[in-house]
Amino acid sequence: MTASATPCFATEGLTKRFPRVTALDDLTVAAGTGVTGLVGANGAGKSTLIKILLGLLPPTSGRASVLGYDTATQGLEIRRAVGYMPEHDCLPPDMSATEFVVHMAQMSGLPRTAARERAADTLRHVGLDEERYRPMGGYSTGMRQRVKLAQALVHDPKLVFLDEPTNGLDPQGRDEMLALIRRIGTEFGISVLVTSHLLGELERVCDHVIVIDGGRLLRSSAIREFTRAEQTIAVEVEEGRQRLAERLTAGGETVVTQGRLLTVQVAADDPGRTYDAVRDAVCDLGLSLLRLEQRRGRIEDVFKEPVA
Amino acid sequence: MTTEPTAVIHDIGYRHYDGVRLGRGRATLALGVQSLRGVFGLGRTARAKIMPLLLAAIMLMPTVVSIGVMALAKQFIMPYPNYAVFMQPVIAVFLAAQSPYLVAPDLRFRVLPLYLSRPLTVTDYVLAKLSALAVALFGLLAVPLTIQFVGELLVDLPGPPHTADYLGALGGAVLHAVLLSSVGIALASFTPRRGLGVAVVIAFYMFTAAVSGIFTGVLISSGRDDLAGWALLLNPFFLVDYAQSAMFGTAPVNTESAPPGIASCLILLAVIAVAVTGVLLRYRKAAS
């Protein structure tokens, strides 16, 4: 990921307390261009963070900026340059998708003719065809999510906030939505901040992942760092698992026994060495190899690791 | 016979928008215009057009009758300044039917956060909705008045035309539009349910009209005619009628013991201020 001069958004000691609950607790985090995932359980403070970044909710303390604009004083500039797809339903049932998206484009300051063109383009990009002329009351969840996405993109923002865009979608709809988000970040050239409580989802589309829990930052790093550090190979042999482990450990590899499996940490500096060592050890000891597979670390492991 | 299609659609990929981006003012105007069209059912389903167009047609009926009488009997029967008071039930039904349409769906279907995530502010939103309803109400009153005035000029009754009365009535139409729209939106915005909003607005009108009527009757029968005029002010239409009389010199409908003109003007202003403040506070709360 390339770090640009002005980050897409940055927060500094951001805290938001409501009368009964602390939604964000001293959060300091920044994200560059590309697709950034914001992961956290329900109630972790994701939606509150988005509202503060839109300049709609004043923080209790701390500061935040979006595209170089201060959220406390330049909310209008921010809202001119970003798009927002809320988590909740927000579509009037008696309007058609076309009418609605045209109207929302006008609300972002596009003249009527430009709004019509952009609405047609955007609806096509999110994959809504003839049904866009029908009242939205009869739409499926998948179609509704697409319209919500279209209204966030129609004014060609520099950055979009997508709050739980895969909510309520079936597996296929989920895949299509994720592919669309990936395209927005790469092909459309629009930076994305996408929230989810499902880690595995974001792993597939994000360049950078921010994990928050209880309003605190758990981890923020590029997706490659997440996975590279976790690169392991799983080895399963019929007998002599103990001997193999001893042999590899003696050879300087990091080996963990997990039930019937041996998990060998791949050397970050020289990955080939680890694979060679496993092959040679199995050969020399004359073991029957049942399984040898590469294991990509998953973001879920962040929660299993002790917090750095 | 079918031929091979010659046109092919190419996917030209995503195109960025680098055209003009208008300011907040134009977005507010666009919202206001869309809302105003919606009040009369334009751009909505056929069913949504029935009520406003029916009421608009009813508003024109006295005008048609009045012009007919002027043309045939050469008599002037309907003074312009009394028209709004005369038609108050129709105007009240229009207000009750249409003000919830303007605000309730945005609350119920949670469209409001989408507006507020754009350069539009809460004040812009409220301003657009209030203006749309005020312009609609003004049109509802001003169009029949104007048609009647044109009719009067064409029929050419003996004596000078009632130009001052007509202009005073137009001024009164502005007062009616501003007062009724702010009260209507204030009442309707407290519930996301459109049906309930309709009931609340019509109940408000019936309640104020009834209370005003009862108090006035009781005061007159107990010989306190001096206070009866104050009781009439409870009815928003009589309030505007007195204010219109004070501001534009028209004759009020209720001639008995009118309260001081300045008082009705001040009360009118106070009611508008309270209603608009209420709407703004309500939306500030909804926004956070």
Automatic annotation (TrEMBL), chain A:
<dbReference type="Pfam" id="PF00005">
    <property type="entry name" value="ABC_tran"/>
</dbReference>
<keyword id="KW-0813">Transport</keyword>
<dbReference type="InterPro" id="IPR003439">
    <property type="entry name" value="ABC_transporter-like_ATP-bd"/>
</dbReference>
<dbReference type="GO" id="GO:0016887">
    <property type="term" value="F:ATP hydrolysis activity"/>
</dbReference>
<dbReference type="InterPro" id="IPR003593">
    <property type="entry name" value="AAA+_ATPase"/>
</dbReference>
<protein>
    <submittedName>
        <fullName>ABC transporter ATP-binding protein</fullName>
    </submittedName>
</protein>
<dbReference type="GO" id="GO:0005524">
    <property type="term" value="F:ATP binding"/>
</dbReference>
<comment type="similarity">
    <text>Belongs to the ABC transporter superfamily.</text>
</comment>
<keyword id="KW-0067">ATP-binding</keyword>
<keyword id="KW-0547">Nucleotide-binding</keyword>
<dbReference type="InterPro" id="IPR027417">
    <property type="entry name" value="P-loop_NTPase"/>
</dbReference>
<feature type="domain" description="ABC transporter">
    <location>
        <begin position="9"/>
        <end position="239"/>
    </location>
</feature>
Automatic annotation (TrEMBL), chain B:
<feature type="transmembrane region" description="Helical">
    <location>
        <begin position="167"/>
        <end position="188"/>
    </location>
</feature>
<dbReference type="GO" id="GO:0005886">
    <property type="term" value="C:plasma membrane"/>
</dbReference>
<dbReference type="GO" id="GO:0140359">
    <property type="term" value="F:ABC-type transporter activity"/>
</dbReference>
<dbReference type="Pfam" id="PF12679">
    <property type="entry name" value="ABC2_membrane_2"/>
</dbReference>
<keyword id="KW-0812">Transmembrane</keyword>
<keyword id="KW-1133">Transmembrane helix</keyword>
<feature type="transmembrane region" description="Helical">
    <location>
        <begin position="125"/>
        <end position="147"/>
    </location>
</feature>
<keyword id="KW-0472">Membrane</keyword>
<feature type="transmembrane region" description="Helical">
    <location>
        <begin position="195"/>
        <end position="220"/>
    </location>
</feature>
<feature type="transmembrane region" description="Helical">
    <location>
        <begin position="85"/>
        <end position="104"/>
    </location>
</feature>
<feature type="transmembrane region" description="Helical">
    <location>
        <begin position="261"/>
        <end position="281"/>
    </location>
</feature>
<protein>
    <submittedName>
        <fullName>ABC transporter permease</fullName>
    </submittedName>
</protein>
<feature type="transmembrane region" description="Helical">
    <location>
        <begin position="53"/>
        <end position="73"/>
    </location>
</feature>
